[in-house]
Every structure is written in structure tokens, then in C-alpha cells.
Amino acid sequence: MPNPAARSASPYDALLLLSFGGPEKPEDVVPFLENVTRGRGIPRERLEQVGEHYYLFGGKSPINDQNKALIAALEADFAEHGLDLPIYWGNRNWEPYLTDTLEQIARDGHQRVLTLVTSAYSSWSGCRQYRENLAESLAALPDDVTPPQIDKIRAYYNHPGFVEANARGIVAALDDLPAEVRGAARLVFVTHSIPTQMNADSGPVGGVYEAQHLDVAQVVSDRVREITGVERPHELVYCSRSGAPHIPWLEPDVNDRLEELAAEQAAAVVLIPVGFVSDHMEVVYDLDTEALATAEKLGLPARRALSAGTDPDFVTALRELVLERAAIERGEDVERPALGVRGPSHNVCPATCCLGDLGGRPPKPTAAGEPVGAA
């Protein structure tokens, strides 16, 4: 008989999907970008230029619909497996705003909340900033509500379900290449570039952001080899650089690398958005619009693999991560699945983890981890 505890999320009574957010219509674009860049002094004219990426898609970011689809998939999976855990959704930069969602969670009577961030890796922008957002939103709650206690699911880039979903996307993309170049296609893993200093300060010991990506790229490549029987070269490149020119960011840029590969007479490439959990703007613009256009101009056969999205293995992985953290909080011994050489990430973020974008300021308060100032 199945163990009932295996389907229990206790002590958690709600799950919060925490994401970046995105505009829904053209008139939302500049206000959304103002939210994203608040405090950086970027002129409105520059925001209008950046907004052209969104205007190409009707002013609507794909990320909101993708979050709705992920919630629906999780709800169906939870129901199928007897997991009674309501799911809420809050964003950093657009509706539904995180503070509003936390207020609703509190007014609904929930006291212990587990957070799933739509970023699988460790960095200031991919983890700590969300934890700062949580602390800010908790502090902003009205006096007549009791703030819930909040924890966060560990970084899940190397969970077997995330790996399998990405490998499946690659195999489908390979199958779509012309047969004469398929066997020699290179695997080009792509993630969001960040400042080199942010990478240097990522994780508890530094350099974790890039190291996590390199590790999972190897694991996924190995899995593709197992499926296809073909060993293929693979590498990691970056997209979506947005900083000032004098600040060094992680390189190479995907378009620059495609030019080099064409010059090296590469047979074909598959672009793999391993740094993203769904096909949002950085994928549909930076890869589908820009990078594939670069490849076409160069005469380099290229396909783009799907991200994890709502792949059944990824949805299963998220449920397993919820149950894993719940069991840990109940004091149970639990297996924490992780592939590659780095092993599972910490359950509780240390106070000094991912201090990569402070700009000389002291660390802000954070939630869902050790408090700032903890030994």
C-alpha cells in the first residue's frame, strides 16, 4: 500500500509560482520595462527601443501564458497523485504582482508556503533577487494579515526530469534537420548572459552560475548520445546581454559563435535554451528571431530545441521537488535526485549566497533562506 506521506506536502499548505512577469498588450510594454529597470535611470526613449522586441509579438510576452499552462499542468499532476496543495502565482515585474498574491495567500489562511521560482540556476538575478522580492513583499503586507512563512525549492537545473525534458527537445530538433547533416550536428547550449562579476559571486563559493550550466550541458549531451547513439560536440554560449558596454558579461554571444562555426564549416547546429524553463521572450526573440536568422544568413542549417515548458518529465520533477522539500521539513531522510558532478543544491540559501549585484550597497533583507547577517 502506498505511503500516504509520499503524497503529503505537509507542513506546506500552499505553493507559490514566482516568476518574472511580462506585458500583455502594447501599452503595457514601457510600464513593464520601467518596472524591470527601476532605479537605473534609463531614459524612456531607450525603453521604447528595447520594447521593439515585444512589439514584434503584438506587445505580449509569452511568459504569462506559459506560467498559466505550467500551473494547469501541475494542478492536473497533483490531482492525479493525490497531492492536495493549492497553487498561487505572483510576478516580480507585472500582474499578478507578488505583493498582491502574498496578501491573497495570507487572507486565504495559508501559513506555510513553498516557492517555485521559474529559474533553475543560482545567481543574484535568478535566485537572490527573487528572495529580496519576497522579503519586500512580506514587509509590504497590510497590518491586518499575518505574513506566511516562506521557503524555496532548491535549484533544479540538474534534476533528472529537467535533464530528460531538455534531451527530448534536442532529439526532436535533430530529427527535424536534413538527414545528410543530422549526424554531424553540433549541440549549442544557450543561456542568459550575466555580468562576469555576478557569475563570480554566484552561489556560496562563486562561479556557480556558469559551472551549473556547463555541468548540465554535459549531462544532457550524454543523454542525447544514449538516445541517438551518436557522440556530438557541445558547448555553452550566451544571449540577451543588456548591460553597459564597459561592463564585462559572460561570452561568447550566440550570434558571434554561429559566425565562427560557419567559418569552421560546421555541418549544422541545434540551439538548446537550457538556461530557460519555457519559451519566453529571450527564446522567441534572441534565438528564434535573431540567432536563427544569423544561421540562415550564414547558410548554416540550424534548429531550436524546445525548452522544458510543460514536458511531463519536468512537471513530474517539480512535484518530486515539492514532496522532497516537504519531507525534509518533516525531518525525514529523503533522496535528492541530481545528475552530473555537482550534486543537489542546498535546501536553504546561505546569507552570503549570490551577492552578485550589490553595486556597493549592503545586502537587502531576503526571505526563503538564512537571514542577512546570519553566521
H and E string: EHHHEHEHEHHEHHEHEHHEH
Could you tell me how far the N terminus lies from the C terminus, measured between alpha carbons in angstroms? Answer: 44 Å
CATH class wording of the largest domain: Alpha Beta
Radius of gyration: 21 Å
Q: What profile does the largest beta sheet have?
A: 4 strands, parallel
Number of domains: 2
CATH-assigned fold name of the largest domain = Rossmann fold
Please give the oligomerization state of what you see: single chain
Residues in helix, %: 40-55%
Q: Helices and strands in order, then pairings?
A:
Elements lengths: L13 E6 L9 H8 L7 H12 L7 H18 L6 E5 L6 H10 L4 E6 L6 H16 L9 E4 L7 H17 L2 H4 L3 E7 L3 H5 L7 H21 L5 E6 L14 H10 L5 E4 L8 H4 L1 H13 L3 E3 L7 H18 L46
Parallel strand pairs: 1-2, 1-3, 3-4, 5-6, 5-7, 7-8
In brief:
With 375 residues, the protein is of the alpha/beta class. It has 13 helices and eight strands.
Describe this structure as you would to a colleague.
- By secondary structure, this protein is of the alpha/beta class.
- It has two domains: 4-156 and 311-329, Rossmann fold; 160-304, Rossmann fold (3-Layer(aba) Sandwich).
- It is built from 13 helices and eight strands.
- It has helices at residues 29-36, 44-55, 63-80, 98-107, 124-139, 160-176, 179-182, 196-200, 208-228, 254-263, 281-284, 286-298, 312-329; strands spanning 14-19, 87-91, 112-117, 149-152, 186-192, 234-239, 269-272, 302-304.
- Strand 3 (112-117), helix 5 (124-139) and strand 4 (149-152) form a beta-alpha-beta unit.
- The termini are far apart.
